[in-house]
Amino acid sequence: MNNAPVIDYESIFLHAPVGMCISENRVIQSCNEALAAMFGHTRAQLEGLSFLVLYPTMDEFLRTGDRIIPIMNAKGRYSDERIMRRANGELFWCHVTGHSMKASEPLGPGIWTFEDVSEKRPVTAELTPREREIAALLVEGKTSKTIARQIDLSPRTVEMHRAKLMRKFSAATSSELVHKLVGLQL
């Protein structure tokens, strides 16, 4: 006879120390306490809502979805760090990882985790949505050419945004900008 304890997976999910949710077509089906607290909502407020409520702007929500699809199609999972928005309007850096439950549906049923990394990486300058997107890709180590291809801009336009970021963060070099974006003060 097996005397192994019964594992209560629902309690584990609800009380996990990292924000978690189950989604389908970018709509939150269920979320845990940590996710609700991180974004300043209750679980009941978030369940049934689009991920749009977690983004600074509609444009960032749409562009992130467009960026996720080819990566999910290729790998079945996605991970990045991006600026998100709490219920009170505060912007913060968040590490997001997701896994598709159906390989044929990259944005279909999935499991997502969210980790607030704002202590390591504070949002210290007023950034436009496009600057936030480019900043997140620079932090991933991508070049201006790679970013331009990925988000369908010219390399020159990406360079222009990078230069604005460098001014806003008082960074003399691209390397210094990336260090400041990840919260390291040189």
TrEMBL record:
Matching entries from Pfam families are given as:
GerE, PAS_9
One GO biological process term is: regulation of DNA-templated transcription
Note the InterPro entries from the entry: PAS (IPR000014), PAS-like_dom_sf (IPR035965), Sig_transdc_resp-reg_C-effctor (IPR016032), Tscrpt_reg_LuxR_C (IPR000792), WH-like_DNA-bd_sf (IPR036388)
Q: Which UniProt keywords apply?
A: DNA-binding, Transcription, Transcription regulation
**Residues covered by the HTH luxR-type domain:** 120-185
Gene Ontology molecular-function annotations: DNA binding
Q: Which SUPFAM superfamilies match?
A: C-terminal effector domain of the bipartite response regulators, PYP-like sensor domain (PAS domain)
Superkingdom, natural source:
Bacteria
Q: Which SMART domains match?
A: HTH_LUXR
- Gene3D superfamilies cross-referenced by the UniProt entry: PAS domain, Winged helix-like DNA-binding domain superfamily/Winged helix DNA-binding domain
Name under which the protein is recorded: PAS domain-containing protein
User: Which source organism?
Assistant: Rugamonas aquatica
